C-alpha cells in the first residue's frame, strides 16, 4: 500500500494512533495500550466473577433473579429392577398344610361323636363319694346290630342290641398311674332283696344303671363314666388297623368261639381277635384266662392306635373313627373331651389285673372277691395311689 502524503488528515507513522489503526511490530506496547490479562494467576479485586449456581431449595421465595444461571433439571430416578414373579402362597404353604391336618384330625372325631349312642348309666340309691382320678366302667356286650350279614354268619349270632356281657373292666387313671381291673362275669354279688346273683345278670336285667350300681357296691369305687363296646367295635377296629398281634400261650381250638389258632405271636384279623377274647372252653381257668386275653386284645388295639401311620393315613384314621363310633355307647354325661381322654387311657401301658378272687363256697363254678386281698386293690384305686403288686395278678389268684 503506497504511503499517503503528509497532511492528509491520516495519523502519522510512529504515533500511537497509527499503531492502533495499522498495527505495530513493536514487542513493547505503549504504556496506555490495552493489554490482555493472563487467564491464570491471582484474581484482581475488581475482576468480574461467575457466582456458583444456588440450589433451588436454598433460594428465596422470590424466584431466580433475572440473568441468573438456571439450575439444570434433575435427572430422573433410575428405574427399579424387575423382580421375577414368584407365587405368594409359597411361604405360607407349610403352615396351611399343618392347619388342614389339624382340622382333619380334630374334625373327624367330632363328626363321629355325633353318631355315637348315649345311654343313661346313672345308678339309683346311695353312691360312693367322688374320688381322685377318673374311673371308667368298660362293658363288652353282645351288641351285634352293627355287624354285616357275613360277620353274623361267621359268628353264628343273630342281630341283637346287646343284652349280655362277658367283659366288665374298671379302668382307673390318675396320679397313681393307670390300672385296668377285670371283674369276671361269674362273680357273685349281693342283691338288695337278699341273696346273690352273678354280676353279669345285672346287665341283662337292668342294663347300664344296675350294672354300675352293682360294681360300685362290690368295690366301693365311684364310676365316673360308662363305655359299652359291642362285637363290631372289636372286629371293625382291628380290621381298620389291618390286624393286631396276639400271643396265645398254647394251641387254641374252640368251636363255640369259632377259634382255631396255633401257639405263638401272630397277626390276626377282627373276627379272630374277637374269638380269641371270648373263648373260655380251652384253658384251665376258663373265665379268668378269658379276661386276661380280653385285656391283651385291648392293649394290642391301643398299641396300633399309637403308631404314626394311624394319623398320617387319612383313610385309616377315618375308618378307625367310623368303626369305633358304630359299635360304642357312652353315658349321657360324657362329652367329646372325656371320650378323647378315655381313648388315650386305653392306649399305652397300664397295670392290668383281675379282681382278687376265690372260688365261691356255695358253687365252685362261681367266684367271689377275696376278702383278704381284694380290699387292698380297691383301696388303691379309690385313693388314687400305687396298686400293690401282690394284689394285681393276671387271673386274680394268689401267686
TrEMBL record:
Keywords on record: Membrane, Transmembrane, Transmembrane helix
InterPro entries: LytR/CpsA/Psr_CW_biosynth, LytR_CpsA_psr
Coiled coil, from the record: none
Residue intervals passing through the bilayer: 91-113
Keyword ATP-binding attached: no
Residue spans of biased composition, Basic and acidic residues class: 44-59, 142-159
A Pfam family hit: LytR_cpsA_psr
Domain annotation Cell envelope-related transcriptional attenuator: ranges: 164-304
Region (Disordered): 1-83, 141-168
Biased segments, Polar residues type: 24-38
Family membership noted in the UniProt record: Belongs to the LytR/CpsA/Psr (LCP) family.
NCBIfam families the record matches: lytR_cpsA_psr (TIGR00350)
UniProt-listed PANTHER family: POLYISOPRENYL-TEICHOIC ACID--PEPTIDOGLYCAN TEICHOIC ACID TRANSFERASE TAGU
UniProt name for this protein: LCP family protein
Amino acid at each position: 500500500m503506497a504511503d499517503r502524503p503528509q497532511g492528509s488528515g491520516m495519523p502519522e507513522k510512529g504515533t500511537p494512533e497509527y499503531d492502533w489503526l495499522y498495527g505495530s511490530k513493536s514487542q513493547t506496547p505503549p504504556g496506555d495500550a490495552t493489554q490482555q490479562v493472563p487467564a491464570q494467576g491471582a484474581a484482581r479485586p475488581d475482576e468480574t466473577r461467575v457466582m456458583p449456581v444456588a440450589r433451588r431449595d436454598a433460594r428465596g421465595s422470590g424466584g431466580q433473579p433475572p440473568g441468573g444461571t438456571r439450575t439444570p433439571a434433575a435427572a430422573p430416578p433410575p428405574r427399579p429392577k424387575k423382580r421375577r414373579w414368584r407365587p405368594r402362597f409359597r411361604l405360607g404353604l407349610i403352615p396351611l398344610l399343618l392347619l388342614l391336618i389339624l382340622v382333619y384330625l380334630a374334625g373327624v372325631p367330632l363328626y363321629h361323636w355325633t353318631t355315637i349312642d348315649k345311654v343313661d348309666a346313672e345308678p339309683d340309691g346311695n353312691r360312693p363319694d367322688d374320688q381322685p382320678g377318673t374311673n371308667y366302667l368298660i362293658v363288652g356286650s353282645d351288641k351285634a346290630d352293627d355287624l354285616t350279614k357275613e360277620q353274623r354268619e361267621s359268628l353264628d349270632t343273630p342281630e341283637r342290641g346287646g343284652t349280655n356281657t362277658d367283659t366288665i373292666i374298671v379302668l382307673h387313671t390318675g396320679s397313681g398311674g393307670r390300672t385296668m381291673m377285670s371283674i369276671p362275669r361269674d362273680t357273685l354279688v349281693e342283691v338288695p332283696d337278699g341273696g346273690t346273683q352273678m354280676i353279669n345278670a345285672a346287665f341283662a336285667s337292668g342294663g347300664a344303671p344296675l350294672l354300675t350300681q352293682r360294681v360300685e357296691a362290690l368295690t366301693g369305687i365311684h364310676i365316673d363314666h360308662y363305655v359299652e363296646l359291642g362285637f363290631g367295635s372289636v372286629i371293625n377296629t382291628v380290621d381298620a388297623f389291618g390286624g393286631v398281634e396276639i400271643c396265645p400261650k398254647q394251641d387254641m381250638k374252640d368251636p363255640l368261639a369259632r377259634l382255631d389258632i396255633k401257639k405263638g405271636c401272630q397277626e390276626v384279623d377282627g373276627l379272630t381277635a374277637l374269638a380269641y377274647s371270648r373263648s373260655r372252653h380251652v384253658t384251665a381257668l376258663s373265665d379268668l384266662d378269658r379276661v386276661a386275653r380280653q385285656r391283651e386284645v385291648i392293649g394290642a388295639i391301643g398299641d396300633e392306635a399309637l403308631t404314626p401311620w394311624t394319623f398320617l393315613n387319612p383313610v385309616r384314621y377315618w375308618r378307625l373313627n367310623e368303626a369305633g363310633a358304630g359299635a360304642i355307647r357312652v353315658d349321657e354325661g360324657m362329652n367329646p373331651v372325656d371320650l378323647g381322654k378315655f381313648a388315650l387311657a386305653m392306649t399305652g401301658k397300664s397295670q392290668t389285673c383281675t379282681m382278687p378272687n376265690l372260688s365261691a363256697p356255695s358253687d365252685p363254678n362261681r367266684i367271689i372277691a377275696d376278702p383278704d386281698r381284694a380290699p387292698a386293690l380297691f383301696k388303691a384305686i379309690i385313693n388314687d395311689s400305687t396298686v400293690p403288686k401282690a394284689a394285681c395278678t393276671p387271673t386274680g389268684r394268689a401267686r
